[in-house]
Structure of Quinol monooxygenase:
Amino acid sequence: MSSGFGLVVRFELRDEAAAAGFDELVARTLPEIREREAGTLAYVVHSVPDQPNVRVFYELYADRAAFDAHEQQPHTKRFLAEREQYLSGLEVTFLAAEAGKGPVPM
């Protein structure tokens, strides 16, 4: 039984101008993820109300192969290269689903 493959990424952005540039980069990247990545089950971008220069991504993939395919996409490579100019910090947490309700069997 597949439990999917997930991660949470916390981006700390340098300042308000960097946050605006990062948000524009995200806006250009998301349509490509939606249209071209069947194995990407969830890709949700969150803002943090009391921390305007923080963004948190929740990503859920059908399996590790789907994540690896996501990482090889031209739009993902562009995002990874361009995001660096906006960041002051980055934290990635990989997840293993244990229980819950969602598109991936537990």
About this structure: DSSP finds three helices and four strands in the chain.
